[in-house]
Amino acid sequence: SKGGYQHFMIKEIYEQPNAIRETFEGNIEDPALIKAAEMISSSNRIFLTAAGTSYHASLVFSKILARRARLFSYPIISSEMSYVSSSLQSDDLVIAVSQSGETYDTLQAIREAKKMGAKIIAVTNVLGSAIVRESDFSLYTRAGPEIGVAATKTFLSQIMLLEMLSSFISYEIKTIDKDEKNNILNYLKYAPNLLQSSLEASDTLIPFLINFHKKNSSYILGRGLGSAIAMEGALKIKEITYLHAESYPAGESKHGPIALIEKDFPVYIVSTSDAYEIAGNAIEMAARNAKVIVVKPADLRLELKEDKRNIYFAEMPPSNNILELEPFILTPLFQILAYRLAVERGYNPDKPRNLAKTVTVE
Ligand code: M6R
């Protein structure tokens, strides 16, 4: 049931602090994380394969893993796997991330990887799903069932689980010591509270943002970790409001997309602690009369030396420069914005046109 909420989507958005708490508590003592970390650290190359929102969670994982474990992983959109799978080898490992565990493209991707002899680890929310059955090993997000077509709580639960995994891998390969690992895990334990504050901060900003978002198109930009959060934000807006939202790494602006900027074009800048240079992108957009909103943890300092006209700030809870916490702090604003915009425009966010919750066809 919708438990008093108008739609499943908003219910699931508000359920997120609980969902990620369940993910944390359900996995922290489970030897599966240690086993997965061992499998990963003894493999040659790590590939990540997923679609849609799960792909964005994989991108977050890839950035965190590079930072903490100094390990490069290859994120591949599931439906693109067949174009590279011939390069896979038997000492490679593929992590398939899928909320439902039933997505056709992801299932095909792991079948192709298996043919090449690679090992597969599934990260899903559904016990006994097809992807689980066809994988060598599985981890579970334990976010509870998600009914809304737009993935919300499962996204942050995937991130929680993958960040836990990243700290186990980093410890396994000794790029962090026991204290650092425990530190990260302690921060993650605290993430549900931060997420709760972030939901509240986002709610407060919605009237302003609805007014801000007056064009049929928008950019959502970020660097580093922020680019993955931006991609998820743009997908949420497209999927349920039917407004165009485009996301790309902010540094690419001057290589083409900035040509589209005109007066009052909405540009969101997702600012994370791995990407200080982003202030320049905000300024270059504002100088062309875009309306810029910088979404950032309150304690992250951005040097905006020049004219700050047209630059607004969405201050979210502080992250203390802990990269792992920033997806929980910066994602909710876009989820709630997409939801409110959809409702405002008269659409049912639970049942977006042309979409199914689980895409089991080619
Ligand atoms: O069940 P999966 O995680 O494999 O699904 C992947 C995508 O189809 C899914 O994330 C889709 O993009 C959602 N509608 C996003 O909100």
Automatic annotation (TrEMBL):
<protein>
    <recommendedName>
        <fullName>Glutamine--fructose-6-phosphate aminotransferase [isomerizing]</fullName>
        <ecNumber>2.6.1.16</ecNumber>
    </recommendedName>
</protein>
<keyword id="KW-0315">Glutamine amidotransferase</keyword>
<dbReference type="GO" id="GO:0006002">
    <property type="term" value="P:fructose 6-phosphate metabolic process"/>
</dbReference>
<dbReference type="GO" id="GO:0005737">
    <property type="term" value="C:cytoplasm"/>
</dbReference>
<dbReference type="GO" id="GO:0006047">
    <property type="term" value="P:UDP-N-acetylglucosamine metabolic process"/>
</dbReference>
<keyword id="KW-0808">Transferase</keyword>
<keyword id="KW-0677">Repeat</keyword>
<keyword id="KW-0963">Cytoplasm</keyword>
<feature type="domain" description="SIS">
    <location>
        <begin position="205"/>
        <end position="352"/>
    </location>
</feature>
<dbReference type="GO" id="GO:0004360">
    <property type="term" value="F:glutamine-fructose-6-phosphate transaminase (isomerizing) activity"/>
</dbReference>
<feature type="domain" description="SIS">
    <location>
        <begin position="36"/>
        <end position="175"/>
    </location>
</feature>
<comment type="function">
    <text>Catalyzes the first step in hexosamine metabolism, converting fructose-6P into glucosamine-6P using glutamine as a nitrogen source.</text>
</comment>
<dbReference type="GO" id="GO:0006487">
    <property type="term" value="P:protein N-linked glycosylation"/>
</dbReference>
<keyword id="KW-0032">Aminotransferase</keyword>
<dbReference type="GO" id="GO:0097367">
    <property type="term" value="F:carbohydrate derivative binding"/>
</dbReference>
